[in-house]
From TrEMBL:
Protein's name in the database: FAD-dependent oxidoreductase
Cofactor(s) the protein requires to work: FAD
InterPro entries for this protein: FAD/NAD-bd_sf, FAD/NAD-binding_dom, NADH-Q_oxidoreductase
Taxonomic path: Bacteria, Pseudomonadati, Pseudomonadota, Betaproteobacteria, Burkholderiales
Keyword Oxidoreductase recorded: yes
Protein keywords: FAD, Flavoprotein, Oxidoreductase
């Protein structure tokens, strides 16, 4: 009887887990011995790093043909419960039926969701760019602004959170607003960040470039201020300050999928499961990857971030190692010592850094061209061709990825 590897999720980590597992199975000639199954709500890769953009077309490429080429079985459903002791998961199908699926090895690649603290009005009135549906709701809302009476609040966007996503979102907003309200419209975009510096997790390296670019675009910073409440007319900060705005966008952080809480093991402050170098959770038959894995990226004390840059290689490693486990082959420890960032700063502008200290190597139009290649080519799925899958899903290959 064939063995079963089950993968939960079709994000960057889930997709590459499936392809890496299929790659090793193919190379070992074990297609009949091991089945690979993926469960997720849709057979799509949602290109989450691009959801701050105005044009949302092409953000959910289909994985149907790719999975067929790789010999990966897909089930449309949502996993409700992981029964680790029974090697099974309970899931709900797209038509609402409750099902149980048994596995030999499980790869948890269920990703992360936007952190939403219990702030009054946050869920009711704030938009986000966390998921494709969220970004589409924001885009639809922005289009309605032109039908509202002109006012400063109508023309104001408040971005809550000055991290990676907040910066990229805010940098796009002046142009997006003027495209809707008119090129001569007096628009106002503000970033409200509780830390005293913009991009607190990005460090000092790119900060000067970021601040100058935001100033050039008319984006204002409200640093050292925490959001206390959100309502239909704007926000109130913890110190009682009021900002009137018809558009509030929440970008403040992410947390690992709640499915990670159903697996026994140590977790970090983001809810990610601590894993071995092979990405196994303890000695179990469960592997965690992508945004649910707290994984050492190198031997210098750096850990993988909740980003597609790390999720892609985490996925390759998890898929390979789960298949190697089934076939009795040695694991390839995950490591990703090369770290770079490429942060979009609006049209024709970006900043590219290298190393965990984020030393600026490029900025302006040249960096924007690099970012465009990342966003439109490099992070997209490979062709539905086994030869390309074998090349690109190899976890031992560590090409420099400029993002």
């Amino acid at each position: 009887m064939s063995k079963q590897i089950l993968i939960i999720g079709t994000g960057f980590a889930g997709m590459w887990s499936a392809l890496a597992a299929a790659r090793l199975r193919h190379l070992e000639g074990q297609q009949a011995a091991v089945e690979i199954t993926v469960i997720s709500p849709q057979p799509e890769l949602h290109v989450r790093p691009r959801l701050y953009e105005a044009d949302l077309s092409g953000m959910n490429p289909s994985l149907v043909a790719l999975f067929e080429a790789a010999g990966v079985h897909y089930i449309a459903g949502t996993v409700q419960q992981i029964h680790a002791q029974d090697h099974a998961v309970h899931y709900r199908t797209a038509d609402g039926k409750e099902q149980l699926f048994s596995y030999d090895k499980l790869i948890l690649a269920s990703g992360s969701t936007l952190f939403r603290p219990a702030l009054p009005g946050l869920n009711e009135y704030a938009y986000s760019v966390d998921q494709l549906g969220d970004a589409q709701q924001l885009a639809a809302h922005l289009q309605t602004l032109a039908q509202r009476p002109a006012s400063r609040a109508r023309n104001t966007v408040v971005v809550c959170g000055g991290g990676f996503t907040g910066i990229e979102t805010a940098a796009e907003m002046p142009a997006r607003l003027r495209a809707i309200l008119g090129e001569d419209a007096a628009v106002e975009v503000l970033i409200v960040e509780r830390a005293t510096e913009i991009g607190p997790d990005l460090g000092a390296g790119p900060r000067e470039v970021i601040e100058q670019s935001l100033r050039n675009k008319g984006v204002s910073l409200r640093l050292g201020q925490a959001v206390a409440t959100v309502d239909a007319q704007g926000i109130t900060t913890a110190d009682g300050s009021r900002i009137e705005a018809h558009t509030v966008i929440w970008t403040a952080g992410a947390r690992a999928s709640t499915l990670a809480t159903q697996i026994s093991g140590e977790r970090d402050s983001f809810g990610r499961l601590h894993v071995t170098p092979a990405l196994r959770v303890g000695t179990s038959d469960i592997y965690a990857t992508g945004d649910v894995a707290h994984a050492a990226a190198d031997d210098q004390g750096n850990y993988a971030l909740m980003s597609c840059q790390h999720a892609m290689n985490l996925g390759r490693s998890a898929g390979h190692n789960a298949m190697a486990d089934v076939l009795g082959l040695p694991a390839i420890p995950y490591d990703q010592p090369v770290y770079v960032t490429c942060l979009s700063l609006g049209s024709d502008d970006a900043v590219y850094t290298e190393g965990w200290q984020r030393t600026v190597k490029m900025s302006g139009p040249a960096a924007a061209e690099l970012k465009a290649n990342i966003n439109t080519v490099w992070i997209y799925p490979p062709q539905a061709d086994m030869a390309e899958i074998i090349t690109r899903a190899d976890p031992a290959s560590r090409p420099v990825q400029y993002f």
